[in-house]
């Protein structure tokens, strides 16, 4: 009797286990995000339908292969080393964290993604949940384009309308001066002061309006634009700015070139206005399939967390611009003093 009961209990336990497995499988296979399970060697053990749609591989093509097949260089070559070090030391690189990276589809195309990796307790298995950020990036590009268009309209309006009014007022005051022939009378001196003040205001307005009108930079013109940006900084008293474009740099996308230029522009503005830097280096280089932009200064630096209240939105905007083009932007204090802004992006048409 006991034997029969034990058999029924085992059969019920097996049925419950099978039902639980089917339920979990149904959840994993119907989720909108890609879910990939790998073993301790980095080989794919499970590849859900969302992963098939996202990367373009059938599950049968992916299972048993190294997960690095879904990554572009240099991450593809580095992945197994990261995994082996984690298993040896227990120190995570991305495990337990949520990060934005770039994935590579079967056709070779790249796309932005958000990755979260967790380890299965007591087993050398890792589960990766991946969300495609392509739609988010497209929307961000549209928002950025709208913001720049609005900014351009404001700058143009300041230059054309307000600037013209200030010019007209100056001309009227110049005419009024003719009625005050004696340059020593208080009225004439007051007029000269007002005209001088208006002239300075017009110059400030011109500078402000030009700053509000975004500079359009195409792929071929990025090195030249950065060289001109460095030359503008060199015109400031006591500041030396050097630009280096390493051999082999080929920026193909106008969007990437434009955003990299604005990141450099913002970084230089921070270095001069907030860090009081005396020496600034701009380096544009190619690292594997990546374009790298480095801006290094010898100023007072930034706190460890990279934030400083009086810098306003400058630092977040640089990171936002990098995200829009599927890249990353790091702002770090250097051990020797000063700040380094590092931006990496995969350049594609």
From TrEMBL:
- Is Oxidoreductase included in the keywords of this UniProt record? no
Keywords (A to Z) from UniProt = ATP-binding, Kinase, Nucleotide-binding, Transferase, Two-component regulatory system
Q: Name one GO cellular component term.
A: membrane
Cross-referenced Gene3D superfamilies:
1.20.5.1930, Histidine kinase-like ATPase, C-terminal domain, PAS domain
From which residue to which does any coiled coil extend? none
Boundaries of every PAS domain copy: 20-90
Q: Example GO biological process term?
A: regulation of DNA-templated transcription
Q: Which Pfam families match?
A: HATPase_c (PF02518), HisKA_3 (PF07730), PAS (PF00989)
Task: List the protein's name.
Answer: Sensor protein FixL
The protein's organism comes out as Thiothrix caldifontis
Q: What is the lineage of its organism?
A: Bacteria, Pseudomonadati, Pseudomonadota, Gammaproteobacteria, Thiotrichales
């Amino acid at each position: 009797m006991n034997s029969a009961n034990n058999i029924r209990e085992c059969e019920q336990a097996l049925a419950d286990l099978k039902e639980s497995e089917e339920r979990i499988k149904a959840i994993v296979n119907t989720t909108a995000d890609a879910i990939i399970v790998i073993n301790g060697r980095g080989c794919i053990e499970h590849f859900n339908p969302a992963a098939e749609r996202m990367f373009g591989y059938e599950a049968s093509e992916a299972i048993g292969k190294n997960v690095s097949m879904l990554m572009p260089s240099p991450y593809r070559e580095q992945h197994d080393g990261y995994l082996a070090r984690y298993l040896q030391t227990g120190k995570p690189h991305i495990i337990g964290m949520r990060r934005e990276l770039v994935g590579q589809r079967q056709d070779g195309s790249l796309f932005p993604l958000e990755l979260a990796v967790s380890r299965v307790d007591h087993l050398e298995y890792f589960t990766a949940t991946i969300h495609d950020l392509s739609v988010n990036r497209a929307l961000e590009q549209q928002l950025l384009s709208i913001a720049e268009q609005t900014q351009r309209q404001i700058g143009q309006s300041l230059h054309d309308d307000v600037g013209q009014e200030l010019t007209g007022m100056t001309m009227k005051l110049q005419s009024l001066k003719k009625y005050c022939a004696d340059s020593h009378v208080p009225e004439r001196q007051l007029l000269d002061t007002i005209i001088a003040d208006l002239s300075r205001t017009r110059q400030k307005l011109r500078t402000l309006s030009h700053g509000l009108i975004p500079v359009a930079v195409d792929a071929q013109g990025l090195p030249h634009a950065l060289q001109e940006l460095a030359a503008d900084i060199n015109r400031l008293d006591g500041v030396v700015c050097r630009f280096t474009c390493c051999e082999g740099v080929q920026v193909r996308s106008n969007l990437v070139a434009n955003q990299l230029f604005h990141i450099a522009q913002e970084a230089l503005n921070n270095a001069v206005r907030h860090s009081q830097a005396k020496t600034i280096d701009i380096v544009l280089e190619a690292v594997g399939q990546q374009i790298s932009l480095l801006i290094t200064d010898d100023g007072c630096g930034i706190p460890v967390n990279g934030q400083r209240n009086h810098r306003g939105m400058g630092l977040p905007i640089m990171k936002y611009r990098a995200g829009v083009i599927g890249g990353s932007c790091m702002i770090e204090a250097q051990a020797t003093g000063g700040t380094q802004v590092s931006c990496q992006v995969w350049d594609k048409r």
